[in-house]
Amino acid sequence: FDESVALLEKANTLCVDGLGEEHPVTLMSINNLAIIYYNNKKYKEAYTLFEKAYNLRREFLGDDKPDTLRSMDGLADTLEKLRKHKNVFSFFCDYVILILEINKVV
User: Fold this and answer.
1) Which position has the higher pLDDT, 97 or 76?
2) Which residue in 8, 78, 89 sits closest to 43, CA to CA?
3) Structure pTM?
4) Vertex 25, ends 104 and 45: CA angle to 5°?
5) Nearby residues of 36 by Cβ (< 8 Å), 6 or more positions away
């Protein structure tokens, strides 16, 4: 675990320095690091990174992009693990509305 985190953090730093924080590859590296934390039950760390990836992806890619929705899903899962159920419900409603809009159901 520690070795994986160290490598992903280094990769993320290289992405930020070389490509910029808004680049899709940089955003993917942030999200990947969040997944490593989540899979190792480090939910507070995962939450911080999923939230960062989600907010940056919304800003630079848009609400309706698959990568943004993946970060939103990771953030919602992490909120559930942290037992922040009120936040999860609100997030889930936003997620469903976005999916319906993307699929032109609404």
Assistant:
1) 76
2) 78
3) 0.80
4) 90
5) 1, 4, 5, 8
